[in-house]
Amino acid sequence: xxxxxHAFMVGDESVAIKVKIRxxxxxxxxxxxxxxxxxxxxxxxxxxxxxxxxxxxxxxxNVISLYRNTMSQLQGSYPYPYPYPYPHSHH
Length: 91
Fold this sequence. Notes:
Strand order of the largest sheet: 1-2-3
Distance between the termini: 24 Å
Radius of gyration: 15 Å
Structural class: alpha+beta
Order of helices and strands: EEEH
Number of strands: 3
Number of domains: 1
Largest sheet: 3 strands, antiparallel
């Protein structure tokens, strides 16, 4: 399981969201977002609606790069090849 911290700006305030990534054998990659540490859920929901697609895209990019980095680190420490959900190129 990968845990990451994703921070984004709401106005002039930085909000941190904890993201958990699991590789579920049945469904593949599962991303769970824990409650933001600073905001109440009600306010957060309004913010999420306002920021909408842009923030989702930002989080997706963040999560994907986080996942890639972690998986390549894991792959280095395990003897068997790790299944990637997309073509992976070694640098």
